Amino acid sequence: MRPHASTMPPVPDTGAPAAPRSDWATLRRLLPYLWRYRWRVGIALGFLLAAKLANVGVPLLLKDLVDSLSIRPGSAAALLVVPVGLLLAYGALRLSTSLFTELRELVFAKATEGTTRSIALETFRHLHALSLRFHLERQTGGMTRDIERGTRAVQSLISYSLYSILPTLVEVLLVLALLGIKFDAAFALITLAALALYIAFTVTVTEWRTQFRRRMNELDSTAHTKAVDSLLNYETVKYFGNEDFEARRYDQSLEQLRRAALKSQTTLSILNTGQQLIIAVALVAMLWRATEGVVAGRMTLGDLVMINAFMIQLYIPLNFLGVMYREIKQALTDLDKMFGLLGRHREVDDAPGAAPLQVRQGTVRFEHVDFAYDPDRPILHDLSFEIPAGRTVAVVGASGAGKSTLARLMFRFYDVTGGRITIDGQDIRQVTQGSLRAAIGIVPQDTVLFNDTVEYNIAYGRPGATREQVEAAARAAHIHDFVSATPKGYDTMVGERGLKLSGGEKQRVAIARTLLKDPPVVIFDEATSALDSANERAIQAELKSAAQGKTALVIAHRLSTVVDAHEIVVLDQGRVVERGPHAQLLALGGRYARMWRLQQSGGDATAAGAAAS
Q1: How confident is the model at residue 228 (pLDDT cuts 50, 70, 90)?
Q2: What is the mean pLDDT of residues 179-208?
Q3: Averaged over 119-148, what is the pLDDT?
Q4: What is the torsion angle, in degrees rounded to the nearest 10, for the CA atoms of residue 70, residue 72, residue 76 and residue 81?
Q5: Taking residues 72-87, what's their average pLDDT?
Q6: Closest by alpha carbon to 172, among 202, 195, 199?
Q7: Which CATH number characterizes residue 486's domain?
Q8: Shared-domain flag, residues 307 and 405
Q9: By CB atoms within 10 Å of each CB, which of 19, 61, 215, 555 scores lowest?
Q10: What are phi and psi of 504, to 5 degrees?
Q11: What is the CATH number of the domain that holds 271?
Q12: What's the pTM?
């Protein structure tokens, strides 16, 4: 009886990006990471407040210092003692401001770096947990740019929020209180009005120009994506002589980025000019009021100096307040993009309570499997066959018949939409993905290597393997002699995606990697189709050795590579049309026999596939 097909289609995790969340929602998303360092945050805030109190005390001492110089002639003792004491106190306050600031930085550095590390690591892990569908559709350059900006945004946001915004507000409140208490309310009102106007102007203009910054970032990601994509496809560019075409394409993106950057800079200049105008008007009004008070005798010269010092101290953080607000808004936008990546749905996830796969013999069964990448275009239809423990089963058929899809389903890069796949009777959807993938090894058609050493790429099959184990796997894959003959041996760098090695050498590295992993189930996904006949024959022996005593699924175009399989399954448009050993299928005189005759008479695998169709 056919098992009940799942009624829930795969949920793609690469739909349209989610709408940007509010700034408060982004901050709430960040707070749990900071909460781990709450004691450090508290201590850092204490140092921060101490630094601001010392900073506000400086103009008060400056007033006393100036007033103490207005002494009666002949008071030499006062001239020597009072200013010296005030000068020492002035220096101590200045030093305290810097000391408390550095202590704050020192205490909170671990929290900032730890939070950044946690978010970056979680994003990295989540991207690896997303389905193959996401990674087939993603744009690498733009995504890496988003992660880079998001990671930097964490540091900017924490730094600006806790190091600048809060202390500036504290300092403003202290200054307003002092001005209101020591002098008439007009000084506080002028300062308060200037502050309110400054903040309103900054927020309004920054909100307006955020669209230009966002557009500039999008174009920057687009340009970066095109550059990375072109460099990754270096050989293709050279094959077709399209260097100028790629340069023009990149330059178009850079030109759009330049225009957006100029627009962003123009709006920034408008913002800065408006901010300076508000500050300048406030300074003139305050100094006019103070000067009038000195002339009228209501205020001393020290009061004038103190008010001027207060305004300068406020002017500097206020000026940076505009910059900080812009940077915080940008950091929130960048962080939201990275949190958007974290919010991507995992199409394939472990079932609740999933247990590790227990491999006793290694029998693999496809039971009435249906599958479609897109619901409107089914790939596999009611597919059923078994790979007995320790046996080799080959799957052949025309291009697009669904052969490579079998490997992706076994690894759970996608889940079946109907039926099930089992290993030793265990539905692979009910076991942990880690244990499932640990039990399966693969030699793919196109082996992609890390831009690292030969040893690293072979040892990737079993991280932590010793050099002796790596060399043993290399000998079994017949690549040890080649590696040893190179000047750097196993420390030879293989280049981006392994481009420094030939196709045959890369395949042998892949075989060695799988042999080192030593899984009970192996998949050879058209492992020799990209090689010439000589290399194919040479590697075929290694593949046969790698499959010895293991449950093996061989996906192939070239029928000559599967004649020794215990059973051959012929697929056509996702359905099993023939099955049996090589001799039996030839005697049947059906589709497999036609493919075989065509290949034996000189046709290639493509022609054989066409005949099968």
Answers
A1: confident
A2: 82
A3: 73
A4: -40
A5: 55
A6: 195
A7: 3.40.50.300
A8: no
A9: 19
A10: -65, -40
A11: 1.20.1560.10
A12: 0.62
